[in-house]
## 1
Amino acid sequence: MRRMMIAATACVLVAGLVVNAEDAKPVQPAQPVPKAVLPKPVQPVLPLPIRPVAVTALKMAQLEEEFETVEAQRDVKKAHVKAAEIGVRAAELNAERVNQLAAKGSISKEEAEKAKVDVELAKAQVEIKIAELKESDVKVKHAKKRLDDAKLGGVRPAPGLIRPLPIDPKAVDPLPQVRFAADEKEVAELKAKLAKVQASADKIAAEAKKAEAEVKVAEAELAKRKDIAKRGRVTADFIPTAEAKVKEAKEVLAKVTKEHKALEEEAAAIQKRLKDIEK
């Protein structure tokens, strides 16, 4: 009996070991952890270089004319500023003379007030001329940029510069290509010359305005000295010196006026020649 119980217990233990052996799964080996894949750095996209564009000879002449014109206009604006500043001085001298006369009762207070207003108006003109000069500076800057860009690209032949040969060149025109190219060259030269002449005329016109202002200043100084001479003793050259300055200022005004007229006549002749070529 005891032996039978021991044998049964042994059988139960063996059966349990067999069941556990069947249920146990094999241990899987550890899988390697995949490495993180870093994204490739993005290469910056560089802008394509901008190639300068070649322009025709006529376009180049137009750009040069534009630059020279705005540059001359800037010189005119500078002269306008100087003339306006001289106008302020003339107005101040006149106001001083009027105030002296008003203090004596020679003129009314209204005239004295008007002289003060003239001074303020002259100062306002200076501010206006300075603003116009700044505007001209901007135009010169942009015109120079356009001209420099065109010079980098160079000059290319204008499309259609040479006319096609006619069917019968002897009967119509023996050398149309040569004549047409020569005309284009002369037009470009005349336009460049016209721009220079007009720029010189504008500059002389500004000098004429300045000379007019100087004449007014000299005349105001002469009037002031004559007024002082009436009230007391002065030196012998007190008035003649002022008269000489007035004469000198008028001579300068006459000279620049004559030069301006000559430049205008030259510009008119060039414009006439251009019209004749375009016919």
## 2
Amino acid sequence: MKYVFKKISVWIMVCTMLLSLTGCSLFDSKAKVYSRYVTSLLDINYKNISKDYSTLTGVSQKDAEAVYVANMDYQAHNLMNYYGVKEVDDGTILSEFYYLAQSIFANAKYEVTDVKHNKDTDTYTLELTVYPLDTLETVYDEIVQYIETFNAHVEEGDYNNTTEVDYETEFAEGIIEILKNTTASPGYMDPVVLEIPIQPSDDYYFINDEDFLSIDKNILYIREDPSSADDTEGTDSEEESEDTTTSEYEFEQTGETDEQITSTELSISSTEAAQ
């Protein structure tokens, strides 16, 4: 049986979610309204707080909550890709990562700290301060150790007669258990200040995809170049299973995109778990 060891992948998002394009009608007190709009946009995406977003945009509560569901599904897939978890069961693993994403991003922290008005062009730029969650960073070493231990069991042949579903499920549950322990007491990295221009369009305004992605990138701190990449790599080993009734699986983490997550094509690249 051929095994490819697990490892943490680089977190890459190359397309944005079109969750920021629902604009709001222009009316008085623009600076205050723009600030409310951006805050409410983030609140619905990460915390499922829909009242202010619905009030400002005019969308129904049901449609507003659909934005939240789409984002949590997106974040769940990101987490799975980052840790090299494959969706091989009836959706149970994805569901667990979905609930985990809810717990993590409920602690998202951000605030509009300034609104700048260019009187010459009558344009507005928001200064948004984001406090990146340190959830994944806090448990980074623990998860690296877990993956190394898991890989050692693979090398010893402990999973030779294990189905792919059981193999992936056991690995995923170990990752989830470690992350769950951090969500009750969230911590934050150093704040990041972003300049978010408001984009006016006739009687409406919005923030563009690029700026929304910039915010999303800073909500949860992710190591750009995981140091464990070299530590957890292993060479493929060919194992013969004594139980000839057990199917032989090639446990390989691919770099393929899972599926279309939101209304626009979403491509999440994941480094292969072993070359």
